[in-house]
Every structure is written in structure tokens, then in C-alpha cells.
Amino acid sequence: EKASVVLGAVAPTPLLAFEASRNLQGKVPSDSLFQKAALIAKDESLPITDIRGSIWYRKQILEVLTQRALREAQMRAQKGGTDKNAEKP
């Protein structure tokens, strides 16, 4: 029902990718949906080139990691929102 894509290290401050998030709202999760959201997030990002990576590299890795994060979120949601590897208080 709800999803948000927030990007770090690809803009001066953490960035809520509004269009990527909007694209996910109310849709059935799928690899193709996640790929489209990742491409939209890539377009929304504002990375710079510095010693840690070029604009091109940051946009490429953003696309890959966004898809991975969305798949992980889907898997956790299907398991009831728990992560068996997470630390317990």
C-alpha cells in the first residue's frame, strides 16, 4: 500500500525520491515495478563526482541498490515485517 524511496550519498542531503515513491504506491510488487522505480530514483538523484565515485558510478550503483532494497523490503513485508538477522534489544 505504501512505499518510500529515500536516497543517501547521491545529493547534498538525504533525498526523498518523490516520483519513485509515487510510482510504487498501490501497485503489486514485482521485479519490473522495482526496476522502473530504480530508474526513476536514478533520474531524481543529484550526485557529485568526488574521490569516492563519479556521477556515473553513483547513478549506476543507486539503480542496483534501489532494486535490492525494494526486493528486501518486499521479502520482509511478506514475513510480517521481521528480520531474523536484526539485533534484538
Q: What would you say this structure looks like, in words?
A:
- It is a single chain.
- This protein is mainly alpha-helical and 89 residues long.
- The protein is 51% helix and 4% strand.
- The protein has 3 helices and 2 strands; from the N terminus they run ββααα.
- It has a two-stranded antiparallel ribbon.
- The longest helix has 24 residues, at 55-78.
- It is globular.
- The chain starts with 5 loop residues before the first strand and ends in an 11-residue tail after the last helix.
- The model has no long low-confidence stretch (mean pLDDT 91).
Number of DSSP E strands: 2
Helix content: 40-55%
The main β sheet shows up as: 2 strands, antiparallel
Low-confidence stretches: none
Provide the structure class: mainly alpha
Shape: globular
User: What would you report as the Rg, rounded to the nearest angstrom?
Assistant: 14 Å
Q: What is the number of helical segments per DSSP (H or I, 4+ residues)?
A: 3
Head-to-tail CA distance between termini: 29 Å
Per DSSP, what share of the residues sits in E-state strands of 2 or more residues?
under 5%
How would you concisely characterize the structure shown here?
With 89 residues, this protein is mostly helical.
Which SSEs are present, and which pair or pack?
Blueprint: E1 6-7, E2 15-16, H1 18-24, H2 31-44, H3 55-78
Antiparallel strand pairs: 1-2
Helix pairs in contact: 1-2, 2-3
